[in-house]
Amino acid sequence: MGASSMIVLILAGLTFGIIAILLARLVNKGSTNKQKGQPYECGIPTKGKTWIQLNVGYYLFALIFLIFDVELVFLYPWAVVAKKVGWFALIEVIIFFFILFMGFLYAHKKGALKWV
Amino acid sequence: MFSLADISKTIDTWLRLHLNDTWTLVVEMVIAGVSVIGLFAVLGLVLVIMERKVSAWIQIRLGPNRVGPKGMFQSLADTVKLLVKEGLTPDGADKFLFNLAPLIAIVVAMLLMAPIAFAKNFQLWDMNIGVLYITAVSSIMVISVLMAGWASNNKYSLLGAMRSGAQIVSYELSAGLSIIAIVILTGSLSFNEIVQSQADGWWIFKGHIPVIIAFVIFIIAATAETNRAPFDLAEAESELTAGFHTEYSGMKFALFFLAEYVNVFIVCAIGATLFLGGWMPFHIGHWDAFNHVMDFIPSSMWFFGKTFFLIFLIMWFRWTFPRLRIDQLLNLEWKYLLPISMFNILLVTAMAILKWHF
Question: Shortest Cα distance from A80 to chain B (angstroms)?
Answer without folding.
Answer: 4
